[in-house]
Amino acid sequence: MTRSHPETFRSIGQVLAGHVLPRLEHAQKRPLRVSCLGTISYDGATEADCVDRSIPIGEAASPQDAMALAATRVARGDIRAMPDDTLRFRPRLIVVQDSASGLVLAGEIRAGVILWQQPVASKAEATRIVLDATRLRGRAFAATGRGDHAAARDLRFQAARLEARLVDPVWREIAAELRLPEAACPRFPQPTFPARPCAARRSYGVSHAQICRQQRP
């Protein structure tokens, strides 16, 4: 009679694939780069004059360090487009990318607090987000065509907020383990059309592909 022994050890290949190789891949994609996406304006600027811009914040060795760095800078309110106050910068979104421009984390800024977005959990969810964001950008394009720059900017920001969940698959598991707040994960955004000027309310809109292009040296 033969006895069956429970498997208590995994093969070397399983260990390499599950632990060693992912860690090596993460190490090769560091340091992580932290930037802030927002809108630049000046005194007397209209919505048509406002410009979306990415401001570098710094580098970090891990997603946790990147979150801490971003939280400190946002809380202090010292993210500026220029050393002086010639141009005003309204921060809207924090983006953390690896050295290959892959998205690691992103979070919306509200009242001096960063609401980190939950990464997508499946390919189907990622596809739905891409479709929803594309529709919002189409509406933004139409709003720009009729001269409604405030509405266009708000719609572009809603699209960018959705795309902030499109974390690179390499980092998706780590981002999910951070247990980001569910409040930072709006699943069904409702488009709004603000009438206030950009000095009072500005929205940022940029696709994930545009984020990658902006961050490349």
Automatic annotation (TrEMBL):
It comes from the Bacteria. This is Uncharacterized protein. The lineage of its organism: Bacteria, Pseudomonadati, Pseudomonadota, Alphaproteobacteria, Hyphomicrobiales.
